[in-house]
Structures are given as structure tokens and as C-alpha cells.
């Protein structure tokens, strides 16, 4: 097997860049590898309309390293009050590519999220009409539902109904974590896809909980049992164009993770494609990485694939123990441990 892997430049279809002093770090990390990224809108306050998306986009562009052509693809955050007209205006802007449904209370900064999907049916209808993808954090939030079952119950209670109500709507089931979600997406129509993170391909809940509790593996949806990890690996390496790369890289400051009540989110952007290569290599499926990372996402979103390339080499290196995060620090996934693939800087 070759020790070099050249791919069309990939894109990240789900990332959190945060804002303010964190941007120079988070933007440099994503722009190192990815041509474009779908920028999650869960700021405080969230990105609710085209004007807020434009302002955030300008802050991201200003934080790019010199010479970078990285392109942020902006997303609206749906609230109970989002109007169909705001969706149409956002689409007309040309830089808003999707809208995101966070069930209220499901995850980090989802307090302004949707309390009942029925409240945003007119907005979703407008999205179906104009071909704007609906991105979904697919977990129910009811206190009586076990945290490990929240994705599966969301499928049964909401996903099936949504795709029935809007058969032409483009839906991305974000950061799927279960065999149930793999099956749902596989069996749904071609306009239903899913992103899969590197950490859900490489890890299961044992990595988070056996031999001590490891807060840097804590994210939402939470890591599941090994059988679900296997189903995700099967899906990602299957060649099925419905499945594509979305890191869900979600930095939180060290003190907010290593705490009595720690935040959800893993920071993977510093070595994202390298981590995916490791997962695909474990499956002897490196030949499937380009489709997953560089082709399936643009095809789903109706955008052209990138035309330049990146090269990875199989060469051990040590992940940093910590990274700057504005004035604070973030502990990346795999901190201080060995990574098996390294990106060659600027190959053309
Ligand atoms: N994935 C996470 O655990 N956290 C994300 C939110 C999200 O994507 O649900 C974050 O913004 O921190
Ligand atoms: Zn989410
Ligand atoms: Zn996310």
C-alpha cells in the first residue's frame, strides 16, 4: 500500500468556528485543508437572518490567513419565529446555503432553537420550494428519553414525518451516531443525506468511559456502543453518495470541558482529514475517502467539487497537548497522542 494519498481538496460540511478572538485559530485550522465549510450558526445570539450571516461571514473572511481562498458557506439558525420571507431573502443573498434545525435544549447554544417543528412548517415549506437544504440536529430533548436513545426516537417521532410531508426537501441528518440513522438515510429518497464525524468513526462510548471519564470525548450526540460505530464505518466507506464528511469540530475552552458539568464538543479541525484517513485505513478503504470527503458533499449541495488537490503522507506525528483559543486554550482530540497521517503543506 502506498504511503501517499492525493485527494481532490475536501470540504467540511459541518463545523463550528465560534467568533471573536477564537476566529484566527479556528479559521486557520479549517482553511489549512478544506476548500469550503458549512458554518454552524449557534453563536450567542444565533445567526438568524441574511444580515447576521453576512456580518459573521465578513468576520470569518477577515480572519483567514494571508493568501487563503477558504470559502465559508453560511447557515441560518431556525427559531420558532423564522419567517418564509427570511428564508427566501437568505437564499437570494447567494452566501447562505442552508438552515439549521436545533430542537430547543438539544445541544450547545440551542436555547433559541425550535420548540415544536409545527411552528416552522411554513419556513420549511419555503426551503423545499427553493431547494435550500434543511440541516437537522436529530435528537429529542424530553427528560424521560435516555441520552443514548435520543437520536433513534427523533427518527421515529420527527424524521419520518418530515420527509413524508416534504418529499422534495433536501435534508441533512447531521453528525449521525447510530445504525438506526444509517438505515433511515440509506432507505430514504436521494434528497436525504447525512454527515459523519471523524470521532464517531474512530471511537465508541468505551473510549469515553472505561478506565476513567474522558471529557474531551464528550460530544452530542453522545458516542454510542461499538455496534453503532461499525455501522457508521460501513456507511462512510460504502461509496454511497448520501454520506459525506462533516467534522462537527466544536471547540470549548479547556476549563469548560474539564469541569463538574462539562460542555459537549470535540476539537478535531487541527487534524481532521488526518483522523478520517486513519478511520478509512482501518477499513482498508482509503480508495473511498475522496468520494466521502471531496465529492459527495458538493454533489448533495449542488456545488462543483474543488479542482485542486491535497496530499497526505503516512508518517507518525504527535498531536499538540493544547492549542490557543483566543486568550484561552483548547485541548484537541488525541492531545499528546500519535497521529498516523500528516498533511503535506501546499501541494498543487
Ligand atoms: N456537537 C457538540 O457536542 N457540540 C456542538 C453543537 C452540536 O453540533 O450539536 C457545539 O456547538 O459545541
Ligand atoms: Zn448538533
Ligand atoms: Zn455541530
TrEMBL record:
GO terms for biological process: 'de novo' pyrimidine nucleobase biosynthetic process; 'de novo' UMP biosynthetic process. It catalyses: (S)-dihydroorotate + H2O = N-carbamoyl-L-aspartate + H(+). Belongs to the metallo-dependent hydrolases superfamily. DHOase family. Class II DHOase subfamily. Zn(2+) 1 binds at residues 14, 16, 100, 248. InterPro entries: Amidohydro-rel (IPR006680), DHOdimr (IPR004721), Dihydroorotase_CS (IPR002195), Metal_Hydrolase (IPR032466). Residues 12-310 form the Amidohydrolase-related domain. Keywords: Hydrolase, Metal-binding, Pyrimidine biosynthesis, Zinc. The gene is pyrC. The modification N6-carboxylysine is found at residue 100. The active site is at 248. Catalyzes the reversible cyclization of carbamoyl aspartate to dihydroorotate. This is Dihydroorotase. Substrate binds at residues 16-18, 42, 137, 220, 252, 264. Homodimer. Pfam families: Amidohydro_1. CDD domains: DHOase. GO terms for cellular component: cytosol. Its cofactor is Zn(2+). Binds 2 Zn(2+) ions per subunit. GO terms for molecular function: dihydroorotase activity; zinc ion binding. Transmembrane segments: none annotated. It comes from Pseudomonas haemolytica. It is an enzyme of class 3 (hydrolase).
